[in-house]
Please model this.
Amino acid sequence: MLEVQNLRKEFDTVVAVDDVSFEVKRGELFGLLGPNGAGKTTTIRMVINIIKPDGGEIRFDGKPFSPDTWNIIGYLPEERGLYRKSRIINTILYFASLKGVSEEEARRRAVGWLERFGLADRLHDKVEELSKGNQQKVQIITSLIHRPQLLILDEPFSGLDPVNQILLKDVLMEVRKQNVAVIFSTHQMEQVEKLCDNICLINKGRPVLNGSLREIKKRYGHNSVHVEFEGDASFLGQLPIVKRADVYQNYAEIELVDPEKATDLLKYFDGKLALRKFEIVEPSLNSIFIDAVGIPPEVAEGAGVKGTSPGLKDNVR
Model:
């Protein structure tokens, strides 16, 4: 199990990470979330010893990290970390060697992973000859090739089409069954909602939500209305009974001032929208994320989103 306790990192006058704590159990998928610049990547880099924390403690299976620990970690950075002129198989073998895997065993595993990701016929191509999505696949393979016990993935779905996102999801579920502790950081809230057991949401370097995703959603209550429609629904965010409305082309997620008055919405649709679906549900993680970190007023105004003041209610901190 990974234990991160009271982690802090300061750069000059900027506190990038301030008192961040969380635990990731073996066999768990854990979501590390936050807006751009929140401190997620800095936290990850401290966990994997790229940068040293100014305070706090990081332990794995009850022991402080040591040089031996680094070989059991798999890491996928958000940025491309591949040698563009290198051939794919050589790239994978090189990263495997850094983790102590023999060339013979690494080659066997590499061929298997390349077949799994549909790249078996590209074995000797150069990295630069691959598309962005296929480069991401190779980078994922390099993070898995040594069979890590702690796997950290920063934006793992970046560049992957829907088919390959499903493939990666299947891989993550298999890794989970192998009793690996998995952290992934992403802006794709729907993937977190489908995959993660627990989350830590960081904003401005500090945790604002931490714990079971199921419990967090319960705290927000069943006050969200999902509607599918035909017509122009841009007016929804201006209704007096609406706290916030996230409106798309033919779909909207609406948070009400008073959850008990959900059916009152229907009178506003009459003559304006052709309603296809009306459902009262628990709020999505995307909605919770926005409520927790807020939206800059200028962005909210441009998007027609109502009710976007940052911060959480005291009972959900």
The chain has two domains: 2-211, 218-306. The first helix runs from residue 40 to 47.
